[in-house]
Amino acid sequence: MLLTTIGLWSLNLTVSRYILTHGFQPLAYATVRYGLAVVVFVAITYLVERSLRVERRDLALIAGAAAFVYVNQIGFVYALDRASASVLGLILGATPIFAALAGLAFRTETLPPRFWAGALLSFGGVGLVAVGAGGKISGDLGGVLLGVITAATWAGYSILVAQLMRRYSATRISAVVLGSAWVLIALTAAPQMSSQDWHLGSEIWALLLFATAGPLVLTNELWFRSLDRIGPARATLAANLQPFLAAAIAVVLLSETLDPVELAGGALIAAGILVARRRRPATPVATPPSE
User: Fold this and answer.
1) What's the whole-model pTM score?
2) CA distance 223 to 83
3) pLDDT band at residue 202, thresholds of 50, 70 and 90?
4) What is the pLDDT of residues 68-83, one digit of tens each?
5) Banded pLDDT at 278 (limits 50, 70, 90)
6) What's the DSSP call for residue 246?
7) CB under 8 Å to 103, separation ≥6 — which residues?
8) Of these four, 12, 61, 148, 247, which has the most CB atoms within 10 Å of its CB?
């Protein structure tokens, strides 16, 4: 289940990049994809639990998580629109570092000295990726910055969702939080939705259905079942492979290229995660809505 999840997450960057370069406007894509996913999550939750009710004390957490998802999706679709999937994959490798920093900000983490050494290595790697991308097609550097925003907002979302998971199922959280975020995305996307050409061909629509059903809906169930069976520490460590697998898939399927500077940056990001990794179990990183 864990390997299937990592594989689907990795493939999603390439699929989404292809969709965005073949006619779908970024916010229109996010609106349609998330709208379909929310319908599925709501249906599953009602079928299994018969309720979407959440306690009033959790409304602030839900609002905060929805805000993170909203910014995350804006960053994700525009990062893929402006930069290559392989570059974004490398940038997302720094997500565990951002997750630890978010935990420090929310006072759920205490960070040992070696974390800061690992953080410096990872952020140095992000800098190298930015330098390598900045010398290519115009806009790639902006895509790198949006990728950093994507990683950082996903980390903040994970911290808030970890608290909600103590009281609610993964599907109920997804239905409520993603549903709230979808309203914000749809409002922002109104101009693009009205100007979007919907005659995109069966291939693009089939890929959109895959990007919704696989990396967004199915992985939600598989990821949390994996956490239950093998524990968050082992699952999260294995999930660290996903960004680098995503970069490799994009290079193969989209014929993208990574220059030596970007590859060195990816290696530094990975080294930083290994250095910063704590011995005690980490707070699990939730299923990424950005993917």
Assistant:
1) 0.82
2) 27
3) very high
4) 999 999 999 999 888 8
5) low
6) H
7) 109, 111, 159, 283
8) 247
